[in-house]
Structures are given as structure tokens and as C-alpha cells.
């Protein structure tokens, strides 16, 4: 089927070529002066009948045959009134003549005579004259055949149809290429949106992990508090039970003495028995307020980290001492922060720093993670530092990772970016006192 279509297309192209060649070979017969019957020179046509004349021929004929008055000049063909200033110059004749000359010299433009099959299997046929359409009227913006030229497009400008077609196909291809480039940019934007979604989900997982850790820590704190309170209450209970046991033992002993003694013996022992009872009762019973334990429990929740991901773009283009900054972000205490990375190629180091943009001086705990597809290769570093808004480059890691490690271990993403996960939160004053210096890294 494909071979048949190609053969048909090739035959159509050959027919078009033959038609063009026949037209150009009979050029002198078609375009000859109606008066001198030879090739046209400076062709003009009658606006009434469209017959072609050499300008000199028609001028001389009108002057010789109608000498009395210009008002009585008539066309030699249609015999209708015709004045010299009403003659129409045939502007398209030069274009057609050039094609005929190229055909005679054997250098007819491939665009007009090539046997290469057209991309379309349909021939361009004039619906009025049933001739092959070979020209494009630049004035009317219409495709026309050779018969249309003198009939409907007087004094117009023309070009070879194949030349116009090829030129516009090329323009269309350029526009399509621009559109493909536009689509590529949209596709890249979609990829960035997808990556943004992944990063948001990753931060969500980090926050969920932090919340779970906080919940587990809070539960452990509750269990510890409850254990301490119950242990204290159990101690009070055991002491009271031991006291009850001792009193019951003494009571049984005294009751047995009374039951087994004679009247005279009881009377002899009564002072001792009464004294023993009084001694027991003289021990004060503890007030419950003294031994009760408060039933309140404290939930110990640490300060939550401010978590985010700083995407360092176009990393391979960084020069020596290049610095890049994240967007500013705030914590729950009114501080404004940003992350800075410092690429020192001469020392093969990438430094990472936290900067206090606005807010009161404070101690902060900072955790940085350089993300890698393999969890074992994720680089973790943690530091506690005091921030007062002064020089920033002492507040971080000058040697967080070597540039060689980044390149050799594939930390760079396909889009030439690094992803840095950060966690920051205020550090308790006690930790700052225990640190005893401006910064402690772990």
C-alpha cells in the first residue's frame, strides 16, 4: 500500500513537472503580442478583453488608427473604447519570463520543477480552469494558474507557488521548533513541581518523625512521673500496714492476757495493760495531707524544630568563594533566619552556615543533612551556637563536606542541584552554660 501511494505521488509530481515544462516551452506562443505576433516587450493589456500587447505596438496602433481624438481610440481586439493611460501593465510577466529563461538554460529551480514527490498526494488544480496551480498572487494572497494571471489578477505581483510553499513550510517548522522548545520548558517546570512535591512530603515525614519522637518522649516522661508518685504512695501504704500489723499483734496479746488471767492477776496487770494501750494511742496518726501525692502530671514537650529543605541550584557553575543563600524563614520566637553555603574550591570544601537576619540574640541547636538517595550516605552534622547578629562565618561548618565527595559519591541531582535538609530550634540556657564556649558541634 505504501509503495502504491508513493508511486501515485511520484506520478502526480511528474505530471506537474510536465505541465510546467510544456507551459514554459510554449511561452513565446502563449505570451505574444496580438499586433506584432512576436514575443511581448513591456507587455500591457486591455482592461476590457485582457488581450496582451507590446506597449509600443498598442500605442502606435491607437495613434495611427484613431488620429482624430483620444476619445475615439478603440482596442483592436474588442473594439471598445481604450485610452493609453487606461492600459494595464502586466507586472507578473517578468517573473514568468525568468522561469522560462531558467528552463531554457536547464537550471529551472528545483522548487518549481523537481521530480521529488510532494508531501501531499493531492495536485493543486485550479477549480475554474482545471490547470495546475503554479503561481501565488502576492497581492490577493491567492494561489492561481497561468490562465488566472491575465483574467483576474491584473497589475498584481506573483511568485512561484513552490517557492512560497517551501518558504512557508520552513517558517512553520521554525514555529513548530519554538513550540517544542516551549513544551520542553513546561515539561521541565512539571518536573520541578513534582520534585517540590517530593520535598514537601520529605519534610512532612521529618516532622512526623519528630512528632512521634516528642510523643514517645512525653509518654516516657508521664510514665516516669507516675512511677515516682506510685512508689512514694506505696512506701506510705507499706508503713501504715506495718503499723497496723504491730498494733493488731499487741492487741491480741493483751486480749489473751485478760482472757487467761484470774481476777486477781488481771487486777495486778491492769496498770501495765492500760499503760501499753495508752502508749500505742499516744503515737499521732499522720495527716493524709502529709502523705498524699499531687495527682497532677506534667507533659514535657521540647521545642519543635523549624524544618525545611534548601535546594542549591546550578552547583556545577559555582566559582571559588561563591556564596548562595536560602529564602528567609522564621521560627516560633520571632527570629528571622537564612542558610548560607560557601563553596571554597581552592580548599575543596563546602561550608554551611546559619545566619540570624533579625531577632534577639539566642542559643540555637542546628542540624544539617546533605540528602543522598542512599540513606547510609546522608551526611549528618549538629551544632549548638550562640547567635548575636555579628559575623556569621564562625557559626556553622566551614568543612561540612569536600567538593570531591559531592562529585564522586553522586550527591548532585540530575538537574545539577544539592538538597540540604535543616532543623533548627532554640537551645536551653542550661545547655549553653554547659557548653562553656561559643559553639559545640557533634
Automatic annotation (TrEMBL):
One of its GO terms (molecular function) is tumor necrosis factor receptor binding. This is Tripartite motif-containing protein 37. Keywords: Coiled coil, Cytoplasm, Metal-binding, Zinc, Zinc-finger. GO terms for biological process: aggresome assembly; protein autoubiquitination; protein monoubiquitination. The keyword RNA-binding does not apply. Residues 305-424 form the MATH domain. It comes from the Eukaryota. InterPro entries: MATH/TRAF_dom (IPR002083), TRAF-like (IPR008974), TRIM_RBCC_E3_ubiq-ligases (IPR053003), Znf_B-box (IPR000315), Znf_RING (IPR001841), Znf_RING/FYVE/PHD (IPR013083). The lineage of its organism: Eukaryota, Metazoa, Ecdysozoa, Arthropoda, Hexapoda. Residues 205-257 form a coiled coil. Residues 121-161 form the B box-type domain. It is found in: Cytoplasm. The gene is 6032244.
